[in-house]
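Follow-up to my post from last week.
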Amino acid sequence: MSAYADKRFLVVDDQPLARDSLRAIAQTVGAFAVEFASNYQDALYRIRNNAPDIVLCDYMLGEGRSGQQLLEELRRFNLLSDDTIFMMVTGEQAYEQVVAAVELVPDDYIIKPFSPDKLLLRLDRIVAKKKFFAAYYREKRRQDYAAALAVLARGRDSEAGRPYRFEILRQEAETHLAAGDASAAEAAYRNILADYEFPWARAGVARSLHRQQKHTEARAEIELVVAGTPSYFDASDLKASICMAQGEHAEAQKVLDEIARKTPRNFLRKRLLAQAAALNGDTETARAAMAEVIANDTMPGAVSPQDQLTLVRNQVAAGDLVAAEKLLLGLRESDVKGFDLALQASYVALLAVASPERGKSRLAGLRPALIDTELPTDTRLDVLRAALATDDGELADRQARHLMAGHDAKKVFATVRKYYSLHGREMALREIQRQVALERIHHETPTGEQPPE
Amino acid sequence: MQRLLDILASGVHDAKNQLFVAESIIAAAERTHSVDLAEARYAIEAAAGRLSRTLATYRLLRQGATLAVVPTVIADLCDEVVLAQGKHLLQSGVRLETDLRVADVWPLDRDLVGDILNNAVQNAGRYARSRVLLTAAVDAGDLILRVEDDGPGYPDPATAAQGGTGLLVGERLAALHVRHGRSGALHLTNGGALGGAIFELRLP
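User reply:
Got it. Predicted complex:
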């Protein structure tokens, strides 16, 4: 009996004839259970509800969808277990270029036409590889990164690990990033680059530098990748994020505008575009992009409370307080009660601006908590805006001081300045900047980059 | 020119899809009726390989051609060549042997290098008396992939590279493989272990 007789196959292809062909080949390697998915949504639905053991997915899925998008979505929602085999099937040479560049790759890809024997050989190799990495996957899933790295180190030094040398190095780098050690990740990626100039490894260096707040260096690295492999869109996403951290919001939006047009259904990218546009003062684009995300990112759980509040934020920025209020009041009170402090603070702050009679007293109630707690950047901006709007200069200044002293200073400086000048408080902001600069000199805190003047 | 490339690529893509339909029907028939139609499937794959190579030639000879370099296990690459060619060569009394002295993974364009090796083995099989040898080794930091045969050898190894599509692609493909500032090369010679033609791809 074939090793694949008891495995469940899912064939994803929009062409009926091609589906039949893939099934015939799968049956020849011993598969009994072969299911079909005829498009992207169908495939997502089937994999979510009853995950197969082996996915054979055509690269071209029609309706502007690709197998690579499907793979990215499956990984985004963690729908592929470590044991599931995802094999891309392609007649295209174009896909090889994709695989060579990007960070997120399938277990393997195979070019049509191919014989049952060749598929069998490829599947056997994937199974062997998954077996080799099984202990590592287990530790990584448990988020025991030290143990995961120890498993990789043992594998790297073993004879059995020789065919997986690059994969081991790559997993090491990714594990360091997941563990929050960006400097070790950078070293691991550079180790790969010393051997070969893979675009994904160069992008990994840029990502690691970005996490270390070394934005100028990160920018130089990512520019190399984008110039060398323009179709590597994730690299462009990263470039945009770095641009935002540097305060270059117009460039970030330009980059994202361009690639978002080419990938209209990538909603993570659209969120990033909304962010860049908002920072860039293009409130219309920000609003439209977020509205599209909320209307069309249809996977269950895909649209988060953060997304809802981002749209509200963009409505407020565009001056459409009626729409903002409607969205806020549309959220269920029970959901709002379940928010963590940061989300609640954003909610109340946005409500105080969009609907002062409802929001002001709630903002006042939350005030003591907002004075002392660490809050994410978006929330601080929300609170800052609401505080200025309700003449609470002290609360606003506290948020501004935190923002100007933090890693996101360059990113949000233009926005903070805009709010302060709207309320005629430029001098107060200048004073905050002066104090932050003085404190920095006093403590000589090496944060990598200086805040803007 | 990009438009012409797109049109050619799309035509080749469609043709390969249709060839895949044909191959799967044959595979299903083999299973259902317990017959061996491997030669029919071989002919289909050879036709598809020819189409790919023609497109690759056009693509690689253009300005600014890029490779798709992925870490590739050399033994796996060679196994696939044996899988694709071994049985067919035996039909004409030629044995395909391997001598693989590389356990490692190498950064190279897996599909194009595989294609070019398949082509070299096909050519060698045409001139070999009874043996073709595929070898992989590492020499001075380079990966050396060789296809040797026991035939009469190239009439003139110095000009042989101008001969066919496969050799033209091989030369360009080797040159495009660049690592640590060094690029690959294609060497055609005679002699070696089997005394016939030697096709040698050297990749940094």
